[in-house]
């Protein structure tokens, strides 16, 4: 048998100096859905996340909390691991930047860039923001009444002078532009690529890539006084997970298919990272997949506003699948999105409980009651049956294309389009009235409805895995018959097969006051 096609996807690696927030949960859920979808579609998938554990900010936060940086990193890493499990979005591997395997990989990549002649020692002075771990140009700064200067991100900056190693980023501007030109999908959605191209066209300066003012980082090879700039360290995590340099069993996964990241870190991923890899003579990732930011009722989350929401609490309150569905359906991928209690409840009650849950409950209960709890006979097909079935089977390719293009909201809109058609079909056919007049036709309608539910549930596994699994259980679909290759007429439900007793899967969300 031919080897399966590989698919390697990553999330950004969150800073280990704070607990998971809703943006992290969103990114993890989306990446998990992409990974699950490709796995369902028969690919050999590697899904990796990690923790960004070095840098001055880590050192400072740990000191404030009376911890060592590693203790802080351990605590945060455990929180992120728990979040991944809770959200049903566990990765295959977690690269922590303090791990020996990572340090070795980063040092090797550094050595390769140095061997290329792209690293030199010089002096750096400039306006540095500790919070952003970035230098800013004088012209980008703003000043308050007291004369204090701030970065464009609003964080305070201070004047820093230090000896530093530099990477010859300036030498890569033309090469990067040629690369973007040849690979117009390198950054998606396109608007983010356009921003990057415009930025690179203005010219690139060499990049300071080491620090001597703190020591919580990976030491520069052959110069212990310097630790590496966190972004050289952090970006390389994607590469660490593949054992590419060691030629290990995961080497086949490099280059990555997709790095899924938020819009604030596109420059690091679409400029620095490919430049480092070009310099080290290593293959470039295929795509940088950018998502927008999530806002709480239009407001940016911040500790001072007090609207930082623990994603675990949301998952407990609404249910994991409901939360996953909400994020992936509500927010057009790549754009910013909002979440609010009302919007989440609306999606739960309209889409999950009503459209899908009710259809399944009504049709499966009728099958239990009228068809002896077995898949009914399909009987001869009329036009309404064929039209609905054709749309459902065609939705598989539609979803495939949408997920290939990292548009989960479009995939879900199409799947729910099928659910909507199925509801209209069910209402028009009125199978509950056919028992006396035409039981064979009633059975045919119930068969078609159940088969539609099978295709819908197969597709839903990537998005709402637990609920989709339960639907497939109720439809008697064997565990080894649940890939997308099974979402075809050849694998349709077989009449006469026993079905378990139906049970509701998506209850309506009832407000606490109403429940009283
Ligand atoms: O940036 N909505 O870590 P991080 C959506 N360590 N996504 C959000 C968000 C929001 N409100 N806030 C943050 C870092 N994110 C670096 C990454 S990768 C080599 C190093 C996203 O913890 C953000 O865009 O600040 C990023 O993709 C991820 O969460 C981690 O952010």
Topology:
Layout: E1 6-11, H1 22-40, E2 44-51, H2 56-64, H3 69-86, E3 93-96, H4 100-115, E4 119-129, E5 134-136, E6 142-143, E7 149-150, E8 158-167, H5 173-182, E9 187-188, H6 190-201, E10 207-208, E11 210-211, E12 219-220, E13 223-228, H7 230-235, H8 237-240, E14 258-262, H9 266-279, E15 288-291, E16 294-296, H10 311-318, H11 320-330, E17 337-339, H12 341-370, H13 383-404, H14 408-429, H15 431-437, H16 439-460, H17 465-474, H18 512-515
Parallel strand pairs: 1-2, 1-14, 2-3, 9-15, 14-15, 16-17
Antiparallel strand pairs: 4-5, 4-8, 6-7, 8-10, 11-13, 12-13
The chain binds ligand ME8.
Ligand ME8 is lined by residues 12-15, 23-24, 26-27, 52, 234-235, 261-262, 264-265, 293-294, 301.
Organism: Rhodoblastus sphagnicola
Keywords: Aminoacyl-tRNA synthetase, ATP-binding, Cytoplasm, Ligase, Nucleotide-binding, Protein biosynthesis
Function: Is required not only for elongation of protein synthesis but also for the initiation of all mRNA translation through initiator tRNA(fMet) aminoacylation.
Largest sheet: number of strands, sense, barrel closure: 6 strands, parallel
The gyration radius over C-alpha positions equals 26 Å
Bound molecules: ligand ME8
Query: Structural class, from helix and strand content?
Result: alpha/beta
CATH topology assignment of the largest domain: Rossmann fold
Global outline: elongated
The average pLDDT value, as a whole number, equals: 95
How many separate structural domains?
A: 3
What is the CATH architecture term of the largest domain? Answer: 3-Layer(aba) Sandwich
Identify the CATH class of the largest domain: Alpha Beta
User: Low-confidence parts lasting 5 or more residues at pLDDT below 50?
Assistant: none
The CATH homologous superfamily of the largest domain is named HUPs
Strand order of the largest sheet: 3-2-1-14-15-9
Q: Between the first and last Cα atoms, what is the distance in angstroms? A: 60 Å
Relative helix content: 40-55%
């Amino acid at each position: 048998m031919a080897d399966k096609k590989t698919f390697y996807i990553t999330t950004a690696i969150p800073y280990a100096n704070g607990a998971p927030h809703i943006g992290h949960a969103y990114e993890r859920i989306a990446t998990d859905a992409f990974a699950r979808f490709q796995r369902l579609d028969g690919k050999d998938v590697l899904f990796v996340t990690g923790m960004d554990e070095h840098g001055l900010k880590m050192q400072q936060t740990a000191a404030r909390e009376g911890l060592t940086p590693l203790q802080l990193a351990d605590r945060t890493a455990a929180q992120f691991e728990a979040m991944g499990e809770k959200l049903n979005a566990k990765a295959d591997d977690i690269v922590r930047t303090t791990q020996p395997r990572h340090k070795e990989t980063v040092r090797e990549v550094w050595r390769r860039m140095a061997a290329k002649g792209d690293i030199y020692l010089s002096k750096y002075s400039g306006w540095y923001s500790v919070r952003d771990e970035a230098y800013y140009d004088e012209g980008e700064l703003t000043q308050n009444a007291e004369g204090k200067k701030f970065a464009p991100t609003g964080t305070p900056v201070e004047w820093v002078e230090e000896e530093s190693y530099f990477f010859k980023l300036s030498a890569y501007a033309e090469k990067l532009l040629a690369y973007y030109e040849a690979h117009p999908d390198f950054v998606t959605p396109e608007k983010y690529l356009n921003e990057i191209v415009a930025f690179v066209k203005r010219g690139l300066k060499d990049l300071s890539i080491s620090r001597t003012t703190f020591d919580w980082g990976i030491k520069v090879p052959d110069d212990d006084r310097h630790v590496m700039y966190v972004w050289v360290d952090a970006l390389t995590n994607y590469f660490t997970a593949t054992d590419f340099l060691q030629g290990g069993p995961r080497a086949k996964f490099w280059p990555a298919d997709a790095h899924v990241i938020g819009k604030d870190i596109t420059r690091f991923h679409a400029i620095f990272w490919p430049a480092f890899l070009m310099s080290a003579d290593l293959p470039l990732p295929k795509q940088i997949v950018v998502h927008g930011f999530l806002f709480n009722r239009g407001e940016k989350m911040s500790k001072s506003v007090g609207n930082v929401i623990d994603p675990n609490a949301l998952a407990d309150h609404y249910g994991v699948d409901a939360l996953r569905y909400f994020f992936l359906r509500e927010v057009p991928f790549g754009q910013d999105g909002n979440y609010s209690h009302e919007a989440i409840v609306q999606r739960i009650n309209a889409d999950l409980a009503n459209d899908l849950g009710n259809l399944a409950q009504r049709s499966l209960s009728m099958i239990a009651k009228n068809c002896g709890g077995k898949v009914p006979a399909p009987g001869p097909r009329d036009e309404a049956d064929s039209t609905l079935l054709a749309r459902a089977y065609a939705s598989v390719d539609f979803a495939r294309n949408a997920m290939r293009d990292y548009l989960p909201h479009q995939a879900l809109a199409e799947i729910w389009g099928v659910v909507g058609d199925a509801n209209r079909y069910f209402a028009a056919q009125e199978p509950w009235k056919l028992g006396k007049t035409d039981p064979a036709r009633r059975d045919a309608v119930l068969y078609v409805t159940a088969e539609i539910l099978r295709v819908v549930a197969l597709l839903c596994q990537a998005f709402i895995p637990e609920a989709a699994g339960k639907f497939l259980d109720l439809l008697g679909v064997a565990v080894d018959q649940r890939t997308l290759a099974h979402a075809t007429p050849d694998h349709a439900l077989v009449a006469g097969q026993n079905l378990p007793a139906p049970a509701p899967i998506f209850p309506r969300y009832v407000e606490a006051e109403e429940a009283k």
